[in-house]
Design goal:
Blueprint: E1 3-4, H1 6-14, E2 19-23, H2 27-32, E3 39-40, H3 46-53, E4 61-64, H4 69-73, H5 75-81, E5 86-89, H6 92-98, H7 109-122, E6 126-127, H8 129-137, E7 142-146, H9 150-155, E8 162-163, H10 169-172, E9 183-187, H11 192-202, E10 210-213, H12 216-222, H13 240-257, E11 260-262, H14 264-272, E12 279-283, H15 287-292, E13 299-300, H16 303-308, H17 310-313, E14 316-317, E15 320-324, H18 329-341, E16 346-349, H19 352-358, H20 375-381, E17 384-385, E18 394-397, H21 401-406, E19 413-414, H22 420-427, E20 435-438, H23 443-454, E21 460-463, H24 466-472, H25 500-511
Parallel strand pairs: 1-5, 2-3, 2-4, 4-5, 6-10, 7-8, 7-9, 9-10, 11-16, 12-13, 12-15, 15-16, 17-21, 18-19, 18-20, 20-21
Antiparallel strand pairs: 2-14
Length: 535
């Protein structure tokens, strides 16, 4: 592929032209150091996620890795998908650093930078963990809401907290607060979603005091307090009065922030041009609402998560972002935050899904499974063996390493599919050897077998139906992170999963972030012992 020098890439990023900078390494390597505002897109997910992230095939793409080798492996897939303007950062991240260009550490750094900006700009009021614990103990008039995903909430929340993901707060908080003197406390795992959630509620104009829990559940645990595990409390259904009030608030925010409102007809026209103009169509409702009926092609992206992890949903600089909900308030609030983050083209669908349907627009149901282009034909062409039909030979698993650790075929060894071409000749040099490849559902393993066949491994086969079919047939499974042929750098643990030192390091790093995602004095979002520089 053509290459781009660090200087040329810096100039491209400083300009206003649409482009996408994609870091194709695994999340662990990306977390240890990457170019600010690069989107993490591991090579193994390229065929699945890139068509959603970059709808216009002529968009300039720049691939970045450690030294250029991994980016080059992406070339066949990109050509098959029809992307015509693809370059690789010459020399990878090593050359970028050698040219004196800065890198940042951590995940979702632009959103975390924005969260700290909101804290200081809005002077968000915070409450210390011990103070909140004392107020809980004395029976103070409080409503505590957890602004994270329901899954994160269930793993551990402040005792008594109610799950209200950040994108839902503006719509649902009115159902939880009956008195104007009730203090509303917002928390997440750390900082960003607490601040965004607190300020979202403050924009409602409620008379209630609204505060963020300082450093979230990590701060709570670092203060020596115990989290509640397995909670399942949810906000009640939205009343007609609550929906009316939220709609009025959404109209006010749209007017105050100048949020562009698209009609169903305008959105249909924009969507029809998505092969020429990058369009990110994001449905910010709950998982259940999305499954009941969403616009064809819309990506489920809960509003709070879009703001928390904007770089995971929007890869193209200057893409057209359109937010959709069931009416107004959730899409408008998300659009307002994204606009304040600096995205230049953000809009909301006026009237949401109901307006789309009234205009004759179709909807899809369920959560679609993203498949690579031409996957059905590829699957039909790849040789397979049924569960229980394994012969002598190697069994390769290409699942994410945490999925592999939970369950895999006994005797399987693990390799990251992103680096399959680099690893397999070293560990299995005999290309006549029988190899059976598996993953949880057969998707990644089918792609891996196609690669092995191209490399000349004529005995490569896929396990039909993957590990699920194997276990479903009553065959034994195995667990544990054993039999590793490659570095399991595809999964990054949360700071609270790594212990006290990791939480303390992460919070110091996040609090010190500057506007370019850098932290002074060498602070990193993980203990120093884990901060080895790797390609």
């Amino acid at each position: 592929m053509p290459s781009l020098s660090p200087e040329a890439l810096a100039a491209l990023m400083a300009g206003g032209a649409p482009h996408a900078l994609l870091d194709v390494r695994e999340a662990g390597a990306y977390e240890r150091g990457h170019i600010f505002r690069a989107t993490s897109l591991p090579r193994r997910l390229l065929e699945i996620r890139l068509p959603v992230l970059v709808s216009a095939h002529r968009t300039p793409l720049v691939l970045c890795d450690g030294d250029g080798r991994l980016a080059e492996l992406c070339r066949p897939a990109l050509a098959e998908m029809g992307y015509t303007d693809v370059r690789v950062l010459a020399g990878g991240l090593a050359a970028w650093r050698a040219a004196g260009r800065p890198t940042v550490e951590g995940l979702n750094v632009p959103s975390k930078v924005f969260g700290e900006h909101v804290l200081h700009e809005r002077r968000t009021t915070q409450i210390a963990p011990r103070e909140l614990q004392a107020r809980i103990a004395e029976g103070a008039d409080l409503v505590i809401v957890d602004a994270r995903t329901p899954q994160e909430y269930a793993r551990g929340c402040v005792p008594g907290a109610i799950s209200v993901p950040g994108g839902e707060l503006a719509l649902r908080i009115g159902e939880l607060v009956q008195r104007p003197e009730t203090t509303i406390v917002v928390h997440c795992g750390g900082r960003t979603r607490s601040y965004i959630g607190t300020e979202s509620i403050r924009r409602l104009g409620l008379p209630n005091p609204v505060v963020a829990l300082e450093n979230g559940t990590m701060g709570w645990e670092l203060a020596g307090l115990a989290l509640e595990r397995g909670a399942s409390r949810r906000a009640p259904a939205v009343s007609a009065e609550g929906r009316d009030a939220a709609t009025r608030m959404g109209e006010r925010v749209a007017a105050e922030d100048g949020v562009t409102m698209l009609s169903a007809e305008a959105l249909e026209a924009l969507w029809a041009r998505r092969d020429r103009v990058n369009v990110c169509l994001l449905d910010v409702r709950t998982a259940e609402e999305y499954a009941e009926g969403h616009l064809p092609g819309a990506v489920w992206a809960p509003g709070g998560q879009v703001v928390q992890a904007a770089d995971e949903y929007v890869a193209v600089h200057a893409a057209s972002i359109v937010l959709v909900c069931d009416g107004l308030v959730r899409s408008v609030m998300t659009a307002a935050w994204l606009t304040r983050m600096g995205f230049p083209s953000v809009a909301a669908l006026a009237g949401g899904v109901p307006a789309w349907e009234r205009g004759g627009g179709a909807v899809e149901r369920g959560h679609p499974r993203l498949l690579p282009l031409g996957y059905d034909a590829l699957r039909a062409s790849v040789p397979a063996v049924p569960p229980g039909g394994l012969e002598d030979g190697a069994i390769l698993n290409v699942d994410p390493s945490d999925v592999y650790a939970r369950d895999h075929v006994p005797g399987a060894v693990w390799v990251c599919r992103s680096r399959l071409e680099l690893v397999i000749p070293q560990v299995i040099p005999d290309r006549r050897r029988a190899i059976v490849v598996t993953c949880a559902d057969g998707l990644q393993s089918t792609l891996a077998v196609a690669t092995l066949l191209r490399l000349g491994y004529a005995g490569a086969r896929v396990l039909a139906g993957g590990t699920r079919a194997w276990l479903g047939a009553g065959l034994p499974g195995e667990s544990g992170l054993v039999g590793l042929l490659d570095e399991p750098d595809d999964v990054v643990l949360k700071p609270y999963e790594k212990g006290r030192a990791a939480m303390e390091a992460y919070l110091r790093w996040e609090e010190a972030l500057d506007s370019e995602g850098r932290s002074p004095h060498g602070l990193v979002p993980h203990p120093v012992l884990d901060s080895r520089a790797r390609p």
